[in-house]
Design a protein that fits this description.
Number of helices: 7
Number of strands: 15
CATH superfamily of the largest domain: 2,3-Dihydroxybiphenyl 1,2-Dioxygenase, domain 1
CATH class of the largest domain: Alpha Beta
Strand order of the largest sheet: 6-7-8-5-9-12-11-10
Radius of gyration: 19 Å
Helix content: 10-25%
Length: about 290
């Protein structure tokens, strides 16, 4: 099974944000931190953290990309008190997109951008069974509005152990949203929960590289497979990064990279960094040679 991890791009705040997020969610920890030198962004901090036992990757690499609500993280809460506690921490210093309150779909819910601009939806789910605490949620807007279902079908065809769990659609009279497009859909990729929605409102944002999804691959054949299936913008191909036909960014990365990137030997880390900065699609054997495996 391939691990799919959200990757968050910060200007300078990755370490600070990692400490903040792991303090907010139970069952959380910082797995490792390190610094890469001589990159196009200079020296950059990288972190791997677990939030509610789910993996996230963070990087401080300059002000090139900014978070926006096209990707948010839906947090399932068993009690209203839990909703209120998380809202209090995540909304402090941020901006409420949907104020905390009662909605037709939940007795207690709020959508906020936190102090770093990252979007969180905090929702009371009660006794409903939840296998995953935090669900990445994609909002298809602008020129990809109306394509959420098409994207879900692509993703579930590419990844194993995948399925569409449920789809709720807009009805008549809900303009500007078109009848039949996706109000909210849940789907599973590699056994991990995701969600998606269309929104035809006049949003001033869209998918960008601030949030990408890292796909860990054990073999070169797996890297080649995901690269071929998902990459749709050749100009975006760099250092394992690709962009699909909907503008969503992915990083197709060898599993062995984790061992390399958390290594504290500055010479090994420098060799690996120099090697991967020259690559578009990662070459596992070349990376191993650079590292000394």
């Amino acid at each position: 099974m391939h691990r799919i991890s959200p990757h968050l791009w910060f200007d300078k705040e990755a370490r600070e944000a990692g400490e903040f997020y792991t303090s907010v969610f139970p069952d959380s920890r910082i797995k490792y931190t390190n610094t890469l030198h001589n990159t196009p962004s200079g020296s950059v901090d990288i972190l791997s953290i677990e939030l509610a036992k789910q993996e996230f990757q963070l990087i401080s690499a300059g002000p090139l990309f900014k978070f926006n609500p096209s990707v948010s993280f839906l947090v399932a809460c068993k009690t209203k008190d839990e909703v209120d506690a998380l809202w209090g921490k995540l909304s402090r210093g941020g901006l409420a997109l949907m104020e905390l309150g009662q909605y037709p779909f939940s007795e207690r819910y709020g959508w906020t951008q936190d102090r770093y601009g990252l979007s969180w939806q905090v929702m009371f789910t009660g006794d409903r069974p939840v296998q995953q605490k935090i669900t990445p949620t994609l909002m298809f807007v602008g020129n990809v509005c109306g394509k959420a279902e098409e994207a879900i079908n692509l993703y579930t065809s590419v990844f194993k152990d995948s399925k569409v769990d449920q789809v709720m659609r807009y009805g008549k009279g809900e303009e500007p949203d078109k009848e039949g497009t996706v109000r909210h859909a849940g789907f599973t990729l590699e056994g991990q929960d995701f969600a998606a929605m269309d929104s035809a409102h006049d949003h001033k944002f869209g998918f960008n590289e601030a949030i990408s999804f890292v796909v860990d691959c054990d073999t070169q054949a797996e890297i080649d497979y995901f690269w071929g299936k998902l990459s749709a913008v050749p100009a975006a191909e760099q250092c394992g990064w690709i962009k699909d036909r909907y503008g969503v960014s992915w990083q197709i990365t060898p599993t062995v990279m984790e061992k390399m990137l958390k290594d504290k030997d500055p010479k090994k880390l420098a060799r690996v960094t120099e090697a991967f900065l020259k690559m578009k699609k990662f070459d596992i054997e070349a990376l191993k040679r650079a590292y000394g495996l």
